[in-house]
Design a protein that fits this description.
Chain lengths: 251, 252
């Protein structure tokens, strides 16, 4: 798979006897950013977990390019409450057996990048939601991964913090040139952060639409016509998935 | 304010003791002043030091041995299902048994030396620590385990990975519960030590107290009780200090 960062072919995953994902095909080039948008429970998290190597696929394959390091920011963030901001950032480097001086330099650099330098000695329990989110992002980036997987990374935040972190992430992605896959149920977030937007849905879930985003990621983007038009098209595609997704409503 | 309350509580306790001592007479209950004077006197006596040091050694060694045995075993039981399936029924069948009942068995099997006394304290502390360590390893937050798994390089050798998991996740996740168990066990450990030192020995605060009781030397008996109480208090304070020092995130 030369020139491909991620290659997914006929991917299927079962929970019990039912397929959650089936017949999923996707390719991602290095340096690309892909946003997956779909209703809750459509298997976005499962797909990211398979790519992160945390659970196996039942059918087909999901391959990450050879030698590519993968980092995942899960919805729960998984920050270790007994480690300080510094300790959490240092953990991936300690696990990868980086030499001590390089670890110190790298953690300091990431602290600066994410505006967390003042908070290095604090514990996650002493941070705000946005600061915790930045810490989780920093911990994923500290060991310089090639592929960054983000599962609803900003879902627990207020709208303003969410937007600010979105800009921050977009700048980081451009600067670091890494490949990124973001799962979200926010159409605006998907369109803003993804150069490719994939709409997933149905039962079992499969790809329902792929959109290209040619635009830039600046604060003006959010009010630009091309952005609003793309949001509208993605939203319509997403709405169509409802027709094929059985919903049970209980009152 | 808490200091004033503690001072008042201590004053009330001493006042009650003094009233009871006056009511019952010093043949039954010596006054706090008489006990304090006796204790002060004995602090300068080498014979008292020998008893004090013997109990301090047995208590500390038993406390330490109990924790270093129980904590890794608790982790292993919490993480290895097969081992847990085998050991958990034994643990829960024997947990309610008062550990002091093992004393005759230990005296028969290990003789009259230091070992049965130290092991009895170790078993008392160890059981409590084992139960909480196993629980904390069983109930680890899946998000923390998943974070560790996703951050750990896939090619890390299994043994190095298990050691890293213990160091970065298992140990800190169970430490607050283990230290709480140690704090709760400190009183029980000293009472078990007292029982162990009441038999087949002429050294230790347990012997000191029983010997004074036999001679109806009540101030001496109360000095021994005070020393043993201070020993338990020392273990308690050490557990509290350890928790404050090693688990600063708990209050965070």
């Amino acid at each position: 798979m030369p020139g491909t960062a991620v290659r997914i072919r006929g991917l299927g995953k079962k929970f019990g006897s039912d397929f959650v994902l089936k017949g999923l095909d996707l390719d991602l080039e290095p340096g690309q950013s892909l946003a997956i948008v779909g209703p809750s429970g459509c298997g976005k998290t499962t797909l990211l977990r398979i790519l992160a190597g945390l659970c196996p696929a039942d059918e087909g394959e999901a391959r990450v390019g050879p030698g590519q390091a993968v980092a995942l920011v899960s919805q729960s963030l998984g920050l270790l409450p007994w480690k300080t901001v510094w300790g959490n950032l240092d953990l991936p480097l300690a696990l990868a057996d980086w030499p001590a001086p390089a670890r110190v330099a790298r953690v300091q650099a990431v602290l600066g990048d994410l505006g967390l330098a003042e908070l290095a000695g604090r514990y996650p329990g002493q941070l705000s939601g946005g600061q915790r989110q930045r810490l989780a992002l920093g911990r994923a980036l500290v060991a310089q991964p090639d592929l960054l997987l983000l599962d609803e990374p900003f879902s627990a935040l207020d709208a303003l913090t969410r937007e600010a972190l979105g800009f921050h992430l977009a700048r980081l992605w451009e600067r670091l040139g890494l490949t990124m896959i973001l799962a979200t149920h926010s159409v605006e977030e998907a369109v803003f952060l993804g150069r490719v937007i994939v709409v997933m849905g149905g039962q079992p879930t499969t790809v329902r639409g792929i959109f290209q985003n040619p635009g830039s990621q600046t604060p003006q983007t959010l009010t630009a016509d091309f952005f609003l038009d793309l949001v509208r098209r993605v939203r319509l595609a997403l709405r169509e998935t409802w027709a094929v997704t059985p919903h049970r409503v209980e009152v | 304010m808490p200091r004033v309350a503690a001072g008042l509580a201590l004053l009330a306790f001493v006042g009650l003791w003094q009233t009871l001592a006056l009511a019952l007479g010093d043949q039954v209950l010596p006054t706090p002043a008489a006990v304090a004077a006796d204790f002060w006197l004995r602090l300068g006596q080498p014979e008292f030091h020998r008893h004090l040091l013997a109990s301090l050694w047995r208590g500390s060694a038993g406390f330490f041995l109990g924790l270093v045995t129980a904590i890794p075993l608790g982790w292993l039981m919490g993480r290895l299902k097969t081992l847990d399936a085998f050991l958990a029924p034994l643990l829960f069948l024997t947990y309610p048994v008062p550990k002091v009942l093992f004393l005759p068995v230990l005296l028969v099997t290990l003789g009259l030396g230091e070992a049965p006394k130290i092991i009895l304290v170790a078993v008392t502390v160890g059981y409590q620590a084992l139960v909480v360590t196993r629980d904390s390893a069983l109930n680890l937050d899946p998000a923390h385990l998943e974070a560790f798994d996703s951050l750990c390089p896939p090619r890390k050798p299994p043994l190095a990975k298990a050691l890293a998991l213990t160091r970065h996740v298992l140990w800190p996740a169970s430490l607050p519960a283990v230290l709480t168990a140690a704090r709760l066990a400190s009183g029980t450990a000293v009472s078990v030590l007292f029982m162990a030192e009441s038999f087949a020995t002429d050294l230790g605060l347990g012997y000191f107290i029983m010997d004074a009781w036999g001679n109806l030397d009540l101030p001496k008996m109360f000095s021994g009780i005070l020393a043993m109480g201070l020993l338990g208090g020392m273990f308690y304070v050490m557990s509290v200090v350890a928790e404050k020092t090693w688990c600063p995130w708990v209050k965070a």
